[in-house]
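I keep forgetting this: the sequence line spells out the residues, with the fold written below as integer tokens. I include a record here:
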Amino acid sequence: MKKKEPSFEERLARLQAIVASLESGNAPLAESVALYKEGIAHAAACREQIERARHDIKVCSEGAVTPFEMSEEDE
């Protein structure tokens, strides 16, 4: 069974928690490095999700997606 990918909001919340933890300076070096790596991965995933959203908005706003119209046969 494939693990569900976190949403943008979940990733952002985790990234904020990682930043707070790193900024506190209380974590041991090894844990800080692991948190940093995790943070980089979440930041990259968030960036990808934002780019996909921008693309979708651009496609819709430039008229590449046309509204669905029902034909008389479908009614």
